[in-house]
Specification:
1 helix, seven-stranded antiparallel sheet
Amino acid sequence: MAVVLMDSFDWMQSTYDSSRCGSHGGTASEVQTNTPFSAGRSLRHRGDTRYKLDKNYWDDTMIIGFHYQIATDRYRHAVDGRQPIIKLRFEDQATPVMELRCTKMATPYFIVNGTAVPGTTAGTSSIRMMPRTWYHFEIKWTIKDSIAANECQLYIDGTLAIDIPAASDTKPNPVNSTRTDFLWIDAGDAEYMDNLYVLDTTGSHANGIMGPDTRMEMIYPSGTGNYAQWVGSDADSTNNYLHVDELEADGDTSYVKSSTSGQRDSYTCTNLAGVEGAPVAIQAIQLLSNARKTAGEARELKHFVRISSTDYDSSGTHPLSQSTNGYVTNVDIENLNPNTSAQWTTGAIDALEIGVKLET
């Protein structure tokens, strides 16, 4: 395990898909074309947005990275200057474990809510953010009664901006090790975020500070793969990839479907060679599908990749909901190439097929 969450926001066109994370309050967040790179999309906050992380996905230390932009100078007009950028919160506690906020002059700082001194301001960056400028944030955060040196840090554009002192208390009381945790992205209007990722600091790669060049690229179905067992919305199984190659899922307009357990559909994909810049290292891949069921009985879907004539099913199994409004985005992250048990390479990704399997 290394990458436990990633989102490029490139797979949507307008309103953010709430089935991917969930909206806590306010107006639904929007997807915009304003990005730190030459193509793609970003998330514009229109209310609180939260991501759910199961406790068994991360240990006491995690790394949260993202690109961030203030679209206006509203921080300077804030009454108290305590504008939130991101929070970590346990599900059953009202007070976040950690908050990264900005002062009235747009300099980031941490608020730590440990047992001993909750609500403590712990370090303020000397780096001041300017409106309409993209910055890369990486937060290394350790939840402990007494942290060691270099365990709670903020990097901005690859430069260490805040280093919370050793022996600081960052663990609220009590902490239930079986509780479900939320990563809250909490910001007001006109803030943009892109290339969000969470690492759990384990594994052979993607386990430390990665730097401002970290980004995500979308690849899409571009051809028929080894399997064409599902039926397309045009009532045949020819060129099924044409029904699932759109940037944003279009519901019942175009789709593939199956009612037979075990049936697979697979597709070749666009190549990484077509994206901006050549990747130096690939940390993980993420498989996404948008699906629902039409029959009353229980239905479950799995993702898989096909490499060198072998199918590798993802470990996750995704129950499907019914009705036209029941489309849910299903996600699986593969940190290693299952064919080699090693880190992914550009060649391996360009050669693979991706697909869906009706499990039940």
